[in-house]
């Protein structure tokens, strides 16, 4: 995305607090963990848009409170309806709920730069003991699909012939034996304390315990989780990526050795080469094959455990008109109006 050189010069390190762009709205105010206010951009390039005078984003971490605020009219739209509330919003005659198959991928980084996960066999043991389908069905209520890799079914590059991992406790035990730890081992998993994240962690704990692996759950706030992830100060941690329209955006920066978000420290010469090819090849079918090969190698090498490609249902009051869903999960209000 293009950044204004004049804004960089004027604001310097405070640029993030003073965003300048060409979108339909302009920045007014941001209060961390509470709200973000935007106002109509009177100089927007598309003359009639936006229709709204302002947009107010509210941060409501509690799922029940957020849905209740939508139902009682405090909110006009909710970003991603938690799976357990989808049936409620669908049944509410005052609301419209739309399914948005997402480009997102939720996965668990295994830090390959330090023990215990610098040992491939231990990564394989953990991956084999985790029942991904049980997580998707039990925690996310089937709102989405088990992930086979970093690229979702919403992308043209999704490898339809590569299945998601299935649980294999015998393989997990064999890999523990191969690693010289037949009785299991321990590791720590960092997560934000949202209800669904904790439910996933607790379910994984029980799954791993079946083969003697002990997973300690460490709850941290969002800022700490991000900082520790970037610093590679973790053994295992969540990554929840909203996805990009081109498959390069879901792969290169995460799994190329020079990727800016390669927080697991993954370095595989074949994957590096394939991801570089994916950036220069123009034929879509050929690129799809390249990313399928990447997906296969990532399953073999296990730098991460791919969990879920979510659907991201949006729920809104019936008076909100013109919302156009995009599978990257971002909310765009330029063409939206209120009747």
Structural features, described:
This protein has 2 domains: 118 residues, 3-Layer(aba) Sandwich (D-Maltodextrin-Binding Protein, domain 2); 206 residues, Dipeptide-binding Protein, Domain 3 (Dipeptide-binding Protein, domain 3, Roll), CATH 3.10.105. The protein is built from 11 helices and 14 strands. Helix 10 runs antiparallel to helix 11. The chain is globular. The model has no long low-confidence stretch (mean pLDDT 95).
SSE order, one letter for each helix or strand: HEEEHEHEEHHEHEHEHEHHHEEEE
Overall 3D form? globular
CATH H-level superfamily title of the largest domain: Dipeptide-binding Protein, Domain 3
What count of structural domains?
2
Going by helix content, strand content and strand pairing, the class is: alpha+beta
Quick one: biggest sheet? 6 strands, mixed
Could you say what the CATH architecture of the largest domain is? Roll
CATH topology of the largest domain: Dipeptide-binding Protein, domain 3
The percent range for helix content is: 25-40%
Give the number of DSSP strands: 14
Radius of gyration using CA atoms only: 22 Å
Beta-strand percentage range = 15-25%
Distance between the termini: 32 Å
What's the oligomerization state? single chain
| CATH class annotation of the largest domain | Alpha Beta
Q: Which regions have little confidence, pLDDT < 50, spanning 5+ residues?
A: none
